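So, can you check this one?
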Amino acid sequence: MYQLGAADRWIDVEEVYLKTFELAPARLSWRTRPDIPDYKKCAKALQELEDPRRSDHLGLVDKNGAYERRLTTTGTSWCLEHADVLTALYSGGVVPSASSQGDSRKIRTVTGTDAYLSWKDTGEMTSTIWELADAFRCTGDSPASIWRARLDDHLRAAERNAHRELAEFIQAARTVVDEEVAG
């Protein structure tokens, strides 16, 4: 809202929705069409900001009817006070989506395994197919289609949550799996 000039004028909620989608498309897009803003997600984010029960947001935004919003002086001060954090968050490219429980579980499961921790420490994939099977919750003799599906599911979770290091591990694991299972 600050970037839209809401410190000085009333702005339409649709402007807010489009700007928030521009800043965080991974969080505010359709599930199946990441190029399209999901107005319900955008509206929910604005409603949370306006929720009087949330004392951390109290008094940041004024409403003028159903469609116009403006930052209060408190809201403008908050934006200026947190400008460094906000600039760092929104100037580095795509803001990652909020982790779903499924994504969080997949990330937590793999990053807690010996295979991942060993790879992270050494930078080399030294794990056996059986250690990778433990990491991705399958068996060493699972068919290649099961391995591909598990690796793809975990890779999507890593990418949705901007977990670059985990994505690199999964790609390294894929090389081992391709040699051992598919090869």
Summary: The chain has a mean pLDDT of 85. The chain is about 60% helix and 5% strand. The two ends are 54 Å apart (CA to CA).
